[in-house]
User: What shape does this take?
Amino acid sequence: MKKEWPIWEVFIRTKNGLEHRHIGSLHAADSTMAIENARDVYTRRQEGVSIWVVESINISASNPSNSDSLFDPAIDKAYRHPTFYKLPEGVKHI
Amino acid sequence: MLGDNSMILGHRLSELCGHGPSLETDIALTNISLDLFGQVRHYFQYAAKIKGAETTEDNIAFLRLPNEYKNTLLVEQPNTDLAYVIARQFFYDVYHLLLLDQLINSTDKQIAAIATKSIKEVKYHTRFSSQWVKRLGDGTAESHEKMQTAIDYLYPYTADLFKETPLEVSLKEAGIGADLTKIKESWLTQVKSVLEEATITFPENPYGHVGGKEGVHSEHLGYILSDLQYMQRAYPNMTW
Amino acid sequence: MQDLEKDFQDRIDRGEVIEPRDWMPEKYRKTHIRQISQHAHSEIVGMLPEGNWLTRTPTLRRKVALLAKVQDEAGHGLYLYSAAETLGISRDELFEQLNAGKAKYSSIFNYPTLSWADIGIIGWLVDGAAIINQVMLTRTSYGPYARAMVKICKEESFHQRQGFEIMMTLCNGTAVQKQMAQDSLNRWWWPSLMMFGPPDAESTHTEQSMKWKIKLKTNDELRQQMVDVTVEQAKVLGLTMPDPDIKWNEERGHYDFGEIDWEEFWQVVKGYGPCNKERLAARNKAWDEGAWVREAAVAYAEKQAAKRTQAIAV
Assistant: This one.
């Protein structure tokens, strides 16, 4: 019998008010251990106040070969950005 | 005494650094060791201040005679295998936490302050070691057997934790130290509860080893000290 | 196929970063697995020579610093193994390669740590050399590797200082201490120059690695950088460089230095260095003796999961 501890992705909130961000991964046998390991591996220098862990196999990812159709259509939608709109000089607080 | 416990246990854990069963576990055990050494430095810096003159934390840590080290027998027991490491840690953590819980109310402000800081760390240690007792106890047949062996082997050394020395009695009466008689019952309850979850049989052994807190140690301490004191003894009176 | 490879090279030439699920030539993947895992192994094996002094530090302050440093190396190994794992190889497989003696790691860790000064030297020279290499690698083309490097460089900044401070204390200390420092420099200087690998003329991987931006500077360029900074630092310490040929070359704007004993380098790389056998034995022992622990944790997790499922079913 030889089973490797599964891989977990670790997300850390560096301080309240900020979102959790992906910081790295590690191995652990279960979620309790994954959180403890994340604490020991990724917050040794006060990097966080909250930890999420997700087993890597549970993450679905977009396929890079579909990137053209997924992300390129957003390129020419400049009207979603404020700079698309003209304002006369002197108008403030908009 | 408190400082010596943390130092010798921390020392034992530091022997494992780089040799753990997985990188994650290696890192976790080293964190515990670092917490313990942080506590050691607080205690010894305080002790050095009381002693005054030229005394430093390092004089206290490295330059005493073997019988002047007052750690309990439990913490000097060797890292026979990870089950021993976890069992030793678990027995001590549960005790340590209960002890600190009293010391945060010590009439000695400095000790109360150190206890208040340490208690957060030790809460984590206790959770960590309890988890691992369960993992190993209720893991595979092999790990169960190893965990049971380690618990059986180390349990007699826990007697030393609760045997009050004359010094401890006087500190207790002065409101500085803890009341070990109060701790013992909670300790037993907690230990039994975790062991039960871990499917480990509680060792019903009425005999125990005592003496560490009065400087009468097991053979292991001599070897620990020959490592620990090596530099200070081989190259006396130098700055490092 | 040809087009894919050309597109890939174009992306790298444009300075784009390659991510795990992007198409990549098989050789790029393999080369990265090799390099990242070698790097990871170096961190892990590198814990051993310093770990040798963990129980014998002269002061409590040095004890916590060294413990934290060696622990960081475990962390860095972990980050790097994680990066390698994004390329479709498991950490267990990588460990097995290491333990079987099939994988390489930095030759420097096959030298023994004989005195406390060696701990200072490792921080000063070995970490110094590693930092030169790693700073370059923060800009490498493979995303997970580059990101691991950024994290590692950030954490490692205290390592070299820790080493230099030890050296400084020794050099300002008694004659015995200063001699300890000099002796250590004498033993470690040449091996630390060998850390950058064989000379460019003999380096088999350099050209392709540069093309794929796995490497941005050649071995000899990095080595020169090391010599230039170290000679100046040794002056501050008041130590003598153990190489009579070290001389400032005005024309090149660099220090010239003597011939490296490549025979010794290859001997160590091929497994015949002073501590190769001990290092591998220590890794194998940790791994083998940890097997029942890793298995127990899996078994426990499975039992707990089964209990939860059962509870839900009821």
About this structure: The radius of gyration of chain B is 18 Å. Chain B touches chain C through 48 residues (CB under 8 Å). DSSP finds twelve helices and no strands in chain B.
